[in-house]
Every structure is written in structure tokens, then in C-alpha cells.
Write a structure and sequence with these properties.
Layout (H helix, E strand, L loop, with lengths): L1 H22 L1 H4 L2 E13 L22 E11 L4 E15 L6 H6 L2 E18 L21 E13 L2 E3 L14 E14 L4 E12 L17 E13 L10
Antiparallel strand pairs: 1-2, 1-9, 2-3, 3-4, 4-5, 4-6, 5-7, 7-8, 8-9
Length: 250
């Protein structure tokens, strides 16, 4: 019995040690840098779907799709909690001529604008990120959906925009003075999976509430909501090893 107890104790110790080491892997790569690209979509007074203006995806017009690119960095505060700094550049576009809804089509107002967005996001992993060669595209035989890092996020930031609006003197436009820098609140969902030990590929959907109704340079007197915009991003990330000082190794 004494020998069996010693064997059991040794096995338990090894298992516990392995689990502890695995649980601490995330601390070795707390930092990431990333780049992303994808489409951007505007949601506001101009263009839109086949009826009066609505919120969220129900009033999106695919013809108005443009692009955005971004770079940034992520830092793991805890295994499931991260903070992320983003810098986005992209284009926004909208036109009443894209819609078949006659009141909008007859108004005939269009706009285009570049935008720059710095933002800070806070992420929570619903399905935590798994680190190791087993959980990468190099080992697809063991792939399972529960191994895909799935996270939600929110935060705050700003947007600088400069709309060029055609036919903005249409009678329903309020034509008020407005600032070209406004606050935003991003809300989104993301997925990430390893390519190898240090690289990951991901998809991210982000919706931004803004504090302006002039993202398009136009504010319809009959509109009741602020303008907003969306991005869908394909993200490539590179993990950076953590030095003993707690800083990243480049």
C-alpha cells in the first residue's frame, strides 16, 4: 500500500505541475501586435434599405461598402481579460441613389468621407485562448470549435471625418454647425485561432455608436437617431514573448 500511495502521489504531482505550467502559458505571451483589413459600412440618413431609416444591420446598403485598415496592440491583463489599442483608417460612403425607397431616392443626396479612428477596447473571452502547437492550423486533426478563442468587447474612442456631401442643401437638412471629431463607443464580437505558436488569424465584427448625426454631413429633420458605422476585419496577430521585466521581447 505504501508503494501504491507513493506512485499515486508522484503521478498526481506531475499532473498538477503540468496543469499549472499550462495555465501559466498565457503569461509568457501577454503582448500582441496586429494588422487588419476588411469592409466598412455606414448607417445613417442617406441611402440604406428599402424603407424608412432603421437601426443596425436592417438598414445597411451593400453598394455603399468601402474599406478599412488598422494596426494596434493587445495586452492580456488576465487569462480571459485583455485590453487593445486600435488605429483605424477607412472610407465611408452613402447615397440615396442606391435605395429603391422613393422618398430617399427622390431626395438624391450622397456623400463620401475618409475617417481616422483611435480607440481603446476591453475584451472578455467567452472561450479562452488556448496556447500551444496543438491548438493551431498545423494540427488541424485536433481542431474543435471550443478551441476557437471567442470574445466580446466594448470600449471608447474618437473618429475624425471630413464628409463631401452632394446636394446637401436639400430642404430637410438641418445644416447646423458640427465638429469633425466625435466620440464613439465600439461594441463587437471576435474569433481567433492559432496559425503557429506565435501567430494567429482572426475575424472581428464591430459596431460603433457615434455622438453625431453629421457623419455624412447631412442631418434629416425627420431622423431621430445618430449615425453609426460597422467594420468587418480579418486580423493577423503576432504574439510577443514576455521578458522577466514584464515588458515584451521584440
Amino acid at each position: 500500500m505504501g508503494r501504491l500511495f507513493k506512485i499515486f502521489l508522484c503521478v498526481s504531482l506531475v499532473v498538477f505541475t503540468c496543469e499549472f505550467i499550462y495555465a501559466q502559458r498565457w503569461k509568457r505571451v501577454r503582448y500582441e501586435v496586429f494588422a487588419a483589413i476588411g469592409p466598412s459600412l455606414y448607417n445613417g440618413d442617406l441611402g440604406g434599405g428599402r424603407g424608412p431609416g432603421k437601426h443596425f444591420l436592417s438598414d445597411i446598403d451593400i453598394q455603399a461598402t468601402r474599406y478599412c485598415i488598422s494596426i494596434g496592440a493587445r495586452y492580456k491583463i488576465r487569462e480571459k481579460f485583455s485590453t487593445k489599442l486600435n488605429f483605424y483608417y477607412g472610407r465611408l460612403n452613402g447615397s440615396d441613389f442606391y435605395t429603391s425607397y422613393l422618398p430617399r431616392f427622390n431626395r438624391g443626396v450622397s456623400f463620401k468621407s475618409g475617417f481616422f479612428e483611435p480607440s481603446l477596447q476591453f475584451e472578455y473571452s467567452i472561450l479562452k485562448e488556448r496556447i500551444g502547437i496543438r491548438y493551431t492550423l498545423q494540427n488541424l486533426r485536433r481542431f474543435k470549435l471550443i478551441y476557437v478563442n471567442t470574445y466580446v468587447f466594448t470600449g471608447f474612442g474618437g473618429i475624425y471625418f471630413n464628409p463631401k456631401t452632394i446636394n446637401k442643401d436639400f430642404p430637410t437638412n438641418r445644416n447646423e454647425e458640427y465638429s469633425k471629431f466625435q466620440l464613439i463607443i465600439p461594441i463587437g464580437l471576435g474569433f481567433k485561432y492559432g496559425i503557429d505558436r506565435l501567430s494567429t488569424i482572426g475575424l472581428e465584427f464591430c459596431f460603433r455608436y457615434t455622438t453625431t448625426d453629421y457623419l455624412d454631413g447631412f442631418s434629416d429633420k425627420f431622423g431621430k437617431s445618430k449615425d453609426s458605422y460597422f467594420t468587418f476585419s480579418i486580423i493577423y496577430s503576432r504574439r510577443l514573448k514576455t521578458a522577466r521585466s514584464g515588458l515584451p521581447k521584440f
